[in-house]
Amino acid sequence: MCGIVGFIGKKPAAPVLLDGLSKLEYRGYDSSGIAVYDGSTIQVKKAKGRLKVLSELTHDGATMPGTVGIGHTRWATHGEPSDVNAHPHYNKAGTIAVVHNGIIENYLKIKKRLQAKGYEFLSETDTEVVAHLLDYYYKGEPLEAISQVLYRLDGSYAFGILFADHPDKVYAVRKDSPLIAGIGRDGNLIASDVPAVLKYTRDIYFIGNGEIAELSLDAIAFYNTDGESIEKEAKHIDWDENAAEKGGYEHFMLKEMYEQPKTVRDTISPRLKDNDIVIEELGMTDEEIRAIDRIRVVACGSAYHVGVSAKYIFEGMARLPMEVDTASEFRYRNPILGEKELVIIISQSGETADSLAALREAKEHGNLTLGIVNVVGSSIAREADRVMYTWAGPEIAVATTKAYSAQLVAMYLLAIKFARVNGRLSDGQLKEYITDLKKLPEQIEMLLNNDERLQKFANRYVAAKDVFFIGRGIDYAISMEASLKLKEISYIHSDAYAAGELKHGTISLIEEGRLVGAILTQKDLYKKTMSNIVECSTRGAFILAVTNEENTEIEKIADYVIYIPQTNPYFTNSLAIIPMQLFAYYVAVGKGCDVDKPRNLAKSVTVE
Ligand code: AGP
């Protein structure tokens, strides 16, 4: 997604903007640009390609003097990647410049109206409409012009705006696209995400929908669209700067994989009190929990895979029916929701457009909604009735790992809570489950530290064309995530199949040397999946098996076995996924892929 940075301070703005944008590169982009007020006019420089191109064009900002500016990395939505479509966009007089993240859904209608009034457009973007519309409504009062424009926009946006005749101000406003503001030591900033400003400030304001931020040299004021001032509290972000940097690892993804023991521990421990599960943020009495007769999980991508896993866990442990939907389907299906159905939205970024829309759909139905979110203060976190944070810290790599693991354990905690309150879990079982939960971090650590053998194995598959993953029950959910990890960072075609489905068509794809990853962590399903493995191996497949350390039988039929330590059958996803993440990572590295920023992908899909 696009990245926005803005700065007003006592030192040159351009280097700060370029530095901030470099911390947002993970969001995926194809061009970038900055606008700086140089004392008399707004200078704009922008370029297609990586940020490096812009840095070279501006000699690392040296050719753009001035202490007030805005910057942008663009992930194209309307108009192909090009210099002219890059942001910032500006009005004809060059007195107003704007950067934008989101989609203006009614931009064509506005564009036609403005063209009829004589406005000329240089780009194909929706954003340029905003620059001219601001020009149209501007009578010397920025807040007034911004409000007039917002009333006329449909869609999602986060804007950074400069007005040449207000050179001591930077304006920012958002609706559905994330935007933060911060008071730094040498000046004040806006940005799309925390890593861009951590170097300058830890006290962050999460700008709410429709709130306009006015940054001046020594203060940040907030207003609503009626021009009334709003009081806001800054949140202190204690992520250390390294947490948003690579910390010595080759890639953010590898660093974040190795953070999984910590993220799992950080997500579990605040909710373990006196040997019981206490989830205060649920804000529900036992009675209210008992009143829930169905749960629906709605999410995208890996977060959806967590939901698929959770279905087996909630239905097995708490005997509570659970539906799982991809958000992009749920939001347009006019879903039938029961009155007492709890809707859980799982989202790392808390800004995924489809998941946010699904949340709103559920709220329109009057259902209680719970967000399982990683980014503090994100839209889903703020709009859900309840929010349970996964304390995974900033996840920079596009391919999620530590947030996925944190989401899994959040769902385990919820399932245990619901099972307990519904009388489905004895004291003894509760004790056992908590003991197993507490062991997960060290077991994950052990799996991470045994990656040498796996790295060698992965190198054999850098030229693979198709890789299949199979499993039953929770193992099927694990297969889905294993497959997504591999394909999204190595670009190798991969699919996950319920093992029992192979004979209904997929097995025709098995041929000599085809790699099939088989997940067998559910003891009661071992035999079934092992017979599916034989179906594949007799047709020439090479079998990679991930299974519990007790299941040595597997060595008779699998070519390469990875054992995971013993844990509660409901928690095996947290362990089996580790070697699958590592496998995907080493194949992608072996192929020379851009592991942290895979092609065509963005970290947070804030547009449909
Ligand atoms: C997973 O590796 C991908 N990055 C993607 O599938 C991601 O899980 C999905 O886009 C959902 O993102 P969210 O959790 O931020 O809502």
Number of helices: 18
Strand content: 15-25%
- The shape, in one word, is globular
CATH class division of the largest domain: Alpha Beta
Going by helix content, strand content and strand pairing, the class is alpha/beta
Which helices and strands, and how do they pair?
Blueprint: E1 3-9, H1 13-22, E2 31-37, E3 42-48, H2 51-57, E4 68-74, E5 89-90, E6 96-104, H3 107-116, H4 127-137, H5 142-151, E7 155-163, E8 170-175, E9 180-183, E10 187-191, E11 203-206, E12 212-216, E13 219-223, E14 229-230, E15 235-236, H6 252-258, H7 260-268, E16 272-273, E17 276-277, H8 286-291, E18 294-299, H9 301-318, E19 322-326, H10 327-330, E20 341-347, H11 353-364, E21 369-373, H12 379-383, E22 386-389, H13 402-421, H14 427-448, H15 452-459, E23 466-471, H16 474-490, E24 493-498, E25 515-520, H17 526-537, E26 542-548, E27 560-564, H18 573-590
Bound molecules: 2-deoxy-2-amino glucitol-6-phosphate.
The site of 2-deoxy-2-amino glucitol-6-phosphate has 15 residues, from helix 9.
Structural account:
The chain has three domains: 3-244, Aminohydrolase, N-terminal nucleophile (Ntn) domain (Glutamine Phosphoribosylpyrophosphate, subunit 1, domain 1), CATH 3.60.20; 249-446, Glucose-6-phosphate isomerase like protein, domain 1 (Rossmann fold); 450-594, Glucose-6-phosphate isomerase like protein, domain 1 (Rossmann fold), CATH 3.40.50.10490. Strand 23, helix 16 (474-490) and strand 24 form a beta-alpha-beta unit. The strands form five sheets. It has an eight-stranded antiparallel beta sheet with strand order 3-2-4-1-10-9-11-15, covered by helices on one side. The mean pLDDT is 94. The protein is built from 18 helices and 27 strands. With 608 residues, it is α/β, with parallel strands linked by helices. The longest helix is centred in the last third of the chain and has 22 residues, at 427-448. The chain is globular, with a radius of gyration of 25 Å. 2-deoxy-2-amino glucitol-6-phosphate binds at residues 300-303, 347-349, 352, 355, 398-400, 488, 604-605.
